[in-house]
Fold these 2 entries.
Entry 1:
Amino acid sequence: MRIGIPKEINDSRVALAPATITKLKDIGFEVIVEKGAGLTASFTDEEYAEVAQLAVRTDVLKADMIISINPLTDEELKTIAKDTFLISSFEPFSDDKVIEKLKGLGLRAFSLDMIPRSTIAQSMDVLSSMASIAGYKAVLEAAMRLPRYFPMMVTAAGNIKPAKVIVLGAGVAGLQAIATARRLGAQVEASDVRAAAKEEIMSLGAKFIEVQGAADDKGAGGYAVEQSAEFLQKQQEEVQRRAAKADVIITTAQVRGRKAPMLLPKTTVEQMRKGAVIVDLAASTGGNCELTQNGKVINHNGVIIVGDSALANTMPQDASSMFSTNIYNFLKYISKDGQVNMNMEDEIIGGSFITK
Ligand code: NAD
């Protein structure tokens, strides 16, 4: 089977790195790559030419299976031959029309965000790979904007206290943010609603912000469930008490298929120190901070608020390599001799094939 890799639009990453293509050939796939597809991720056409065919976009879109990080546009989807396999993140949880649209065009789509979060599927989980990069970059972004040091410093020009960082939401991105902030020497406090999070936060050397009464997440497949207004109010109060002393707040809290919970109201931001930085990774789903503007950096009374859910895009080489490895593991699992095994009884295949 031939896999087509188009150049991503408005994204520096590429779905397959050259090193992964070599491994895909060993399991029966051929790959055709759009010219220039890897350039913004630091992979040259010469590197691709050694392992794949290079072609113009229209030819790449004629492959038997098209893999892209972001879904193709509606206009392009209409040009794809019936029965072509598509692999991307279609996010049917937030776009309820996408499945009917793809089915209507006779396309066969696997949605990477629908792969169940089981132990066996961990190596295929693009959400985790990208979230981990975003958590790391969120801290670097904050450190670059903060008018202060992160670590404690003892110098001849005086002693500097370590920065205080709060992380709201300790899933994959949040835990990586905690680890990165700790490595830079900050004091970290963090909050999450999932029962498993407390121990994970503490094991990274951060303090847990305890709020009693979170709704039970058992059966939510590793995701959080929506919390009551009463709980969110209590949580906002706990956070507000600490925010006045914080230098940085990184927010990552998400509830799949819903608007992000609002954890930092305007009143909290207005109690923060001048020069403090908020990085809101939940910006694209409404933001955890009331003032966040998606895709923008704003200054509210001296507090900088960065609304960016696409930080993985700012580290495109490693992001592409990790995405590629996830894709290889997924294809290895769902295929035999380069052909897709359509066993819908299988949890991973049936769970991610959205055009049944
Ligand atoms: P996510 O991006 O959906 O959400 C981010 C975090 O926000 C979660 O930890 C969630 O509990 C938290 N959150 C939601 N509402 C909140 C609130 N009001 N206050 C504070 N925090 C709130 O989640 P994610 O990072 O993709 O994954 C969460 C967890 O799922 C992981 O930590 C892990 O345990 C599990 N997981 C398992 C696998 C696997 O086994 N294959 C893969 C990835 C993740």
Entry 2:
Amino acid sequence: MNPSARPRVFSGIQPTGSPHLGNYLGALRNWVRLQDDHDAYYCIVDLHAMTMPWSPAELHARTLETSASLLSVGIDPEASVLFLQSHVPEHVELSWVLTCIARMGELRRMIQFKERSKGEGESVGVGLFAYPVLQAADVLLYRAHRVPVGEDQRQHIELMRDLAERFNAQFGDTLVVPEAYIRGPGARIMALDDPTQKMSKSAGRPTASILLTDDPGQITKKLKSAKTDSGTQVRAGEDKPELTNLLSIFSLVTGEPTESLEGRFQGRGYGDFKAQLAEAVAAHLTPLRERYEAALADPGELERILATGAKRASEVAADTMADVREAVGLRRPQA
Ligand code: AMP
Ligand code: TRP
């Protein structure tokens, strides 16, 4: 297919530590699938990682580690444009323009902001508040049609649609109004120790998440200690959130439908089920871990991939930004 005729996808991930199973099953697997028949832009959003307190040395190291993780799950830098957000300054420029049409009320309603700012009162960071506007700029800059993300990002995508529509209504048709691409039972993987919370990097509880870099021993330990109800039946259902989550993970890493797993583990108890689940997860993640380590062992190659990605991304970003500047009435310097 002619690349320019294909629909465009854009998505981003924060470089805040190894991706976990939720990131992978909810988002990254779809990134990989979409790169074959879409014009794909995948971005490591290092500027977003500065909305919570950060260590410069860690941020510096994590951006490269996250690039290695993305290669390990199957992002192909030939098929997709893989790059760092801070390498393309237009993200910040468009973000400012959108900040000037965004409203306090709509940002204050963002669930992620409410969760992350809990207890902070008046000292909550302005960056955390403006976070979804930068995210809108990320996507709108590439005039992307689809945004593959997990369920937790639905509200942020709604906001970027509103901002794009408002911009177009006010300044003429300039931006593409994108759609969320949220698919399947992986879209919301829950924490292993608390099925009422999503699996998250910021949980700060090592037993809550399985990381893509975990080895089989760590995977077994975490799944052994995963919370289950006091019953014995391996079955999904609204009354069994823990088992439902574990069965989805099992089904997603093996491709075996949940009903078939329920049949197979009938009368066998949670211990047996968890041991088999650990084996299946480890088998799925081992090749990823190996590819991750190999990629990280060659930082020069990772840097080269990111530099090429930034160049390709910049071409599109410059084009959109030129249209945006003209639409809003900013003057260009005359030679
Ligand atoms: P983040 O780690 O916040 O940068 O998220 C990267 C991607 O993973 C986003 O598309 C999220 O929606 C997705 N994601 C994060 N946590 C989960 C989860 N527990 N289940 C499914 N998807 C998730
Ligand atoms: N906010 C997203 C998250 O926490 C990450 C992100 C930043 C993103 N920019 C994006 C996702 C653009 C999709 C598109 O997961």
